[in-house]
Amino acid sequence: MSSDAPVVSFTVDLEPDCPPFLRGFRGVEHGLPALLDLLGESGVPATFFTTGDVARRYPRAVERVVSEGHELACHGMTHTAFTSLGRAEAEAEIVESVAILRRFGPVTSFRAPYLRFPEAYVDLLERSGFERDSSQAKYKAAYYRKRRPSTLRRIPASVTSSVLRLPSPIRRAYLAAVSSPVVLFVHPWEFVDLRKEKLRWDCRFKTGDVALTCVKSMLDGYADQGATFVRMREMV
Ligand SMILES: [Zn+2]
Predict the structure, then answer these.
(1) Residues 182-210, buried b or exposed e (16+ Cβ, 10 A)?
(2) Does the pLDDT at position 141 exceed 80?
(3) What's the CA-to-centroid distance between 19 and ligand 1, angstroms?
(4) Which of 9-13, 97-101, 176-180, 226-230 has the lowest mean pLDDT?
(5) Stronger pLDDT, 42 or 196, i.e. the higher one
(6) Ligand 1: distance of its center to the CA of 1 in Å?
(7) Which of 191, 189, 182, 179 is nearest to 216 (CA)?
(8) Which of 68, 129, 123 has the alpha carbon at shortest distance from 99?
(9) Where are the domains of the chain?
(10) What are the residues whose beta carbon lies below 5 Å from ligand 1 (ion)?
């Protein structure tokens, strides 16, 4: 392995289908098992930012995530944007989701829905025992604004999820420009065919089995570079 081999954290937002545009859980029911199979075959440990609502509806799915060695993490309770919530509502979302998710094991990493979390609420995450927050993205302006000092480690996403479904030469060019540590993210609903849904193009193009093939080729590409795949809690 060369010394400049990247560290890669593959993350999954385990949530309802393409919020807020669709309703349903085809991603959890059909996309997730296929993704877990792929991660198992590739030997890639991942981090699953899961809503409390999904964990309550699909406990067997969450048990599989945990039993296969992945990190279980928190993605709020109902996939409501925290920027639309008052402080008491935000606190209720966090407390309720944590109570459900921690029945399955330790949960110390957090990512807000839509990658939007008010700085004024960061203390709520600290008080709920979180150690890491991945609610920022390097491709969003908010990441570069001043942040409140916090005990949380901020670990931004590197690229938006639809990049992974771009044609491979374009995807490779994109990812070549991303510095280590690389934080990738996908959603289980991307592995369900949504091409005929009335959705924004970036939500639906190349969804379904072809998206799985894209993820496989990307993970293989990183493996060829000697990448180390880590769960978010292992990032240093
Ligand atoms: Zn989400």
Answers:
(1) bbbbbbbbbbbbbeebebeeebbbbbbee
(2) no
(3) 7
(4) 176-180
(5) 42
(6) 34
(7) 191
(8) 129
(9) 7-234
(10) 13, 15, 113
Angle of helix 209-224 versus helix 168-176 axis, rounded to 10: 40
Its pTM surpasses 0.85:
yes
187 CA to centre of ligand 1 in angstroms:
8
Q: Name the residue with higher pLDDT: 112 or 206.
A: 112
Rg over CA atoms, the chain: 17
DSSP-derived secondary structure for 123-174: HHHHHTT--EE---BTTSGGGGS-----SSEE--BSS-GGGGGS-HHHHHHH
Note the pLDDT of residue 3: 57
Q: Which two tokens stand for residue 207?
A: 């969804």
Q: Residue 1 above 70 pLDDT?
A: no
> What tokens does 9 get?
């954290």
Q: State which CATH number among 3.40.50.1000, 3.30.1330.10, 3.20.20.370, 3.40.50.150 fits the domain covering 7-234.
A: 3.20.20.370
Q: Which residue has the higher pLDDT, 143 or 194?
A: 194
